[in-house]
Amino acid sequence: MARLNFIWNLSRFNKRVVSVIIDTLFIVCAFYAAYWTRIGHIQPLNDKVAQYVLFGTIIVTLVAYTKLGLYRAVLRYLTFHALAVVSIGTLISAVAVAVLAFYLDANIPRSIPIIYGAFLCILSGGSRLIVRVLVSQIGGKGKKNVLIYGAGSAGRQLALALRNSDTHKVIGFIDEDTTLENTIIMGLKVCDIRESESVVTKNAVEQVLLAVPSASRARRKKILDALVHLSAEVLTVPDMKDIVEGKASIDELKDVPIEDLLGRDPVEPQQSLMEANIKGKVVMVTGAGGSIGSELCRQIIKQKPAALLLFELSEFGLYQIDRELSNLVEANDLKVEIIPLLGSVQRINRLATVMKSFSVQTVYHAAAYKHVPLVEYNVVEGVRNNVFGTYYTAKAAIEAHVESFVLISTDKAVRPTNVMGTTKRVAELGLQALAQQEKDKPSGTRFCMVRFGNVLGSSGSVIPLFKKQIAKGGPITVTHPDIIRYFMTIPEAAQLVIQAGAMGKGGDVFVLDMGDPVKITDLATNLVNLSGLEVKDEQHPYGDIEILFSGLRPGEKLYEELLIGDNVEQTAHERIMTANESFLPIEEYKQLVDDLDAACHNFEHEKIRQLLLNAPAEFSPTDGIGDLVWLHTNKLPK
């Protein structure tokens, strides 16, 4: 192959000259071969008239090839169009032989032009195909061998897009359709998924490209489960909706979305519930710059509120979400006023003034400290922000005559083993107490809580951490081999929160259906395998990525729960349930808040812990007091 490099390196003009010379030889060879095939010898062709016919045919053929653009075609990108041009050119050439032989009265049988045309077509077209194969083999060096899962429309489009790629070489298709097994599509063999492992090994396939953009997540999970054992990286094409809308192209390959590993299809939101507390109303979101708060804002803006107040302590977080939403409003020509407000939920006067000034009608309270170990290390701030922040925001809402108040809670509030979960449960108790108080009023504020587990892609999610660790070559750190968690996508969680809030009657504790829990070790293993790598363990000592177990962090549980008791009822939405759980009367809750306030003010951590233990939150700590300031002051080991 290297011997031909001098030809590949010729200039475009010189390559055309070579093509003309070769085609001239093909015409001569085809002419003589046709005569020999018909007569058995080439003696009569030595006369001058036959030579004139041959010379004239060469001129006509080369002119025809030139006019048809055959010499402008780049062989590397040769298509069936070029072969059609060759066919037309050889037809013209064969006609030229017949016409010239007739008018020059040459001693050439009438069947010669037909035989000649067939030979010339084979020589001109076949040689170009051979050169194209040789060039593609040279260009294929250094490319990644890939298999495409899905021989449907998307798969064929992807194969076509990658045909001229400088980085990928398609080896074939994988498809579960038995009618396509061992067939050839676009020159590529279709193999069954059961043969995929041998095909990957035999062809040193580096990537498997998932070209099933319209498949449901449940279907995708089944496919991934069948591919995850392969030694190739698994990538996917964009969603079909994005391709159709022009937001992405078929060959924009990306990592498999982690939600596909969960196999849980989102339920289409009920539009009446999405609009109920938002459309045409003034809505306020606390913690608007956070993972959940920002997604709530994105979902709210689609329901066309009159105004959206973004209440956020972080200046940078507020800047980001304000800019994003303002661009969204402008791009979609929405009549929504975006109001960015800096402030802390621990300042009741600021909250009440804001709500009264803008006549807020609906509040989504997402502001909270949610990272379990950090709240263990900063107990007072955790209590201040989660308990008092929620209580003050709720009190301000009552004072401003807000219609509806929705608290974003967590599964860690159920039988908590850490301060963060306990503070969220105490926050729930406060809203339940206030809800009982407001029920006696003719138009009191409706309070409800929505409790759910982990969300994919949030600031505290393990998924981004795992991906960074894999990119660095490992190891992946997991706290415990048996730890499990519930997961949900942020958009789905935000939509369900909005819908649950619309169903609240007062004091409701809503629980979102999180699907089946996921074992974190399995999640880490799948991420490694989908990256085309192997987990390093006792069975595979020469694997690529090791999974290390660091031990449970302060206050962390092996598994989370969504319900305290079994008294759960279904609602009008299939993914939303409501729980009837115990709570404190308002007077007792006020006393708890006052005692916590005094203990926090004096940094009395033993008293704070005792108050949290005495509250009906079912707090069962797994560790001692972890506040870093308290530990340092008391000179205790961490």
* Strand content range: 15-25%
What is the spatial order of strands in the main beta sheet?
A: 10-9-8-11-12-13-18-23-22
Characterize the biggest β-sheet.
9 strands, mixed
Low-confidence spans:
none
How far is it from the N-terminal to the C-terminal residue, by CA?
A: 68 Å
Share of helix, binned: 40-55%
Radius of gyration: 36 Å
So how many helices?
23
Shape: elongated
Q: What class do helices, strands and sheet pairing give?
A: alpha/beta
Q: How many runs of DSSP E, i.e. beta strands?
A: 23
Mean pLDDT: 81
Descriptive notes:
With 638 residues, this protein is of the alpha/beta class. The chain is 47% helix and 15% strand. The chain has 23 helices and 23 strands. The strands form five sheets. The chain has a nine-stranded mixed sheet with strand order 10-9-8-11-12-13-18-23-22, with helices on both faces. The longest helix is centred in the first third of the chain and has 29 residues, at 112-140. The chain is elongated, with a radius of gyration of 36 Å. 41% of the residues are buried.
